[in-house]
C-alpha cells in the first residue's frame, strides 16, 4: 500500500521554480537555441538523436543518465519509463526510456514540438533520478492509481512537469505538440489532456506572466 506521507512529497517534485543561479544551465531561451532538424522526424534513430540533443542542452544535470527511446503501440503518445529490472540500482545506473507511440513517426509533428515534449519527459526522468528505488516504486504505484479524468493531484504533477519545459523556453513547441495531440485523440481523451496538461491558450498565458526568449 502506498504511504500517504510519501505521496505528498513525490506527487509534486517539479513545482519548484528555478533560482537565478540556475539561469546559466536552465535558460528561458534553451529550446529556441537547440539545433533542430528542418524536416519532421520519421525514424527512431532521429528521435534518439533529438533526445540526446535535448538532454545535453536543457538537462545538463542529467549528464551520465542512460536514457533511450522505445516504441510502444497505442501509448498516446509519450511516457518516461524506468526499466523495472534496474529500479533497485543507483539512480544514475538505471536504464530509463522515453516510450513513444509509433504514430508520432508515421504522422510526425514538427521537430520543435517533439523537442518540447521530450523536454517534458526528461523532466520526469529528472524526478526519477532524485528517488531511491523504494521511493520510485511508491511513486509509480501512486501514478498508476490516478484516474486521468478526475485526479487533481495527477493534473498538478503533470502541469508542474510542463512548467519544466516552459522554463526552458519550449513554449512554442509545447503548444504545437498539444495542437497535434488534440487532432489525434477522441473527445474523451481530449478532455483528459486539457485537464492534465497546459493547453495552447494556457501556455500563451504562462508566457505573458513569465516572459519569453524574445524578452531577453
- Low-confidence parts, pLDDT < 50 over ≥5 residues? 1-26
Sheet with most strands: 3 strands, mixed
Shape: globular
Strand order across the largest sheet = 1-3-2
In what range is the share of β-strand residues? 5-15%
Give the CA-CA distance, first to last residue.
Answer: 48 Å
Order of helices and strands: HHEEEHHHHHHH
Report the total helices.
9
Number of strands: 3
Descriptive keywords:
216 residues; mainly alpha; three-stranded mixed sheet; 9 helices; 3 strands; globular; disordered N terminus
Describe what you observe in this structure:
This protein has helices at residues 4-11, 44-58, 103-106, 111-129, 133-145, 152-167, 171-182, 187-196, 200-210; strands at residues 66-71, 78-82, 95-100. With 216 residues, it is mainly alpha-helical. It has a 3-stranded mixed beta sheet, with helices on one face. Helix 1 (4-11) crosses helix 5 (133-145), helix 4 (111-129) crosses helix 7 and helix 7 packs antiparallel against helix 9. It starts with a helix and ends in a 6-residue tail after the last helix.
Helix and strand arrangement:
Elements: H1 4-11, H2 44-58, E1 66-71, E2 78-82, E3 95-100, H3 103-106, H4 111-129, H5 133-145, H6 152-167, H7 171-182, H8 187-196, H9 200-210
Parallel strand pairs: 1-3
Antiparallel strand pairs: 2-3
Describe, in short, the structure shown.
The protein is mostly helical and 216 residues long. It contains 9 helices and 3 strands; from the N terminus they run H-H-E-E-E-H-H-H-H-H-H-H.
